[in-house]
Design a protein that fits this description.
The chain contains 7 helices and 18 strands. With 325 residues, the chain is of the alpha/beta class. The strands form 5 sheets. Strands 1-18-2-3-4-5 form a 6-stranded mixed beta sheet. It has a 6-stranded mixed beta sheet with strand order 6-7-8-11-17-16, with no helix packed on it. The longest helix has 27 residues.
């Protein structure tokens, strides 16, 4: 019996060590997935529009595997890069994203938003230093509607937190606080200017750190005759890009994610969440949302789950199409 118990213990240790070694190997090399996003209202000129979706870097550099990430982003052609937050490290440095940008084609635009773990601006008065650094490096901070002209079409990139913005109320509040010439007022003015240029036939992509829920979309959208359009912008929201959840971060083989953090607007959360709601593409009320699997490790999870277990860091190449997949 003692020898049998010892053998079982040794086998157990070998299995655990083998699992940890396999997990380390899986998580040392970034992966790239190709995802077809069905957008029924997509204009013909935007068929096969290709977007590289990156999220939750969390300041992570991959050491001697960094070249493998650079090779992944160089190995395809795409029209733009979207980075959906949690970019900086614990010191507020955006160096990981700057390193990633060095491997990108110089003529490809990079759009980014802040995440909940990135340093915030002080109210509406200024930009955080890390944002200014990335802007100086050529990236576009999506804190207001951005007009992007591609393939002879107009695509508006919208920050999700402004989808319900009341510019008149914001202007009044800022003036009351004596911030009439502030950064916040610049956003309000840019919002009004963009609405004056927008047309129903334009395409609209929202970029968010936290996934947008179906309830939020139900509030945003309104029926206009036979068409669905946004309440606060002309035209129809077609695509949402988000991150934050890291595909559950801690995956159990055969079971999926153990836990996903609860958020105000996230469509899933808690223990053993529906894997289809925390990563990949979700069709909601005529809008397709892609939730990135992420590259780093989020502190939104409990301490024991702040690691990627059997969950390789992944970037996504999104291909927009009217065909159904």
């Amino acid at each position: 019996m003692p020898w049998g118990c010892l053998l079982i213990f040794v086998i157990f240790i070998i299995v655990i060590a083998g699992g940890l070694f396999l997990n380390s190997a899986l998580n040392s090399y970034p992966k790239k997935e190709r995802v077809m996003l069905t957008v029924p209202s997509l204009p013909d000129r935007l068929e096969n529009l290709r977007l590289l979706h990156v999220s939750d870097l969390d300041g992570r550099l991959f050491g001697d595997r960094q070249k493998s990430l650079t090779d992944l982003i160089k190995s395809d052609n795409y029209h733009a890069v979207f980075v959906t937050g949690d970019i900086t490290d614990k010191n507020g440095s955006p160096n990981a994203m700057l390193t990633l940008m060095e491997g990108l084609p110089k003529d490809v635009p990079v759009f980014f938003v802040a995440g909940d773990e990135d340093p915030k601006a002080q109210g509406f008065e200024n930009l955080p230093a890390w944002v200014a650094t990335l802007k100086s490096a050529g990236a576009t901070y999506v804190d207001r509607p951005i007009k992007w002209e591609v393939n002879k079409s107009v695509v508006w990139i919208l920050p999700a937190d402004l989808l319900t913005a009341d510019s008149e109320a914001l202007r009044f509040s800022l003036n009351e606080q004596g911030l009439g010439n502030s950064y916040g007022m610049q956003i309000v003015q840019a919002l009004d200017n963009a609405r004056g240029e927008m047309l129903p036939e334009h395409s609209y992509i929202a970029i968010s750190h936290v996934p947008v829920s179906q309830e939020t979309l139900a509030y945003l959208n309104t029926q206009d005759g036979e068409n669905i359009r946004m309440q606060f912008f002309p035209g129809r929201l077609q695509v949402i890009l988000s991150g934050h959840l890291n595909r559950g971060q801690f995956l159990l083989p055969g079971f999926g994610a153990l836990y996903s953090p609860m958020t105000v607007s996230s469509p899933a959360g808690g223990f053993f969440p529906d894997d289809n709601l925390i990563s990949g593409k979700i069709n909601m009320r005529g809008v397709v949302q892609h939730i990135s699997p992420g590259l780093g490790v989020s502190e939104s999870y409990p301490k024991l789950l702040r690691m990627r277990l059997f969950n390789p860091p992944t970037i996504s190449l999104l291909v927009l199409t009217k065909d159904f997949y």
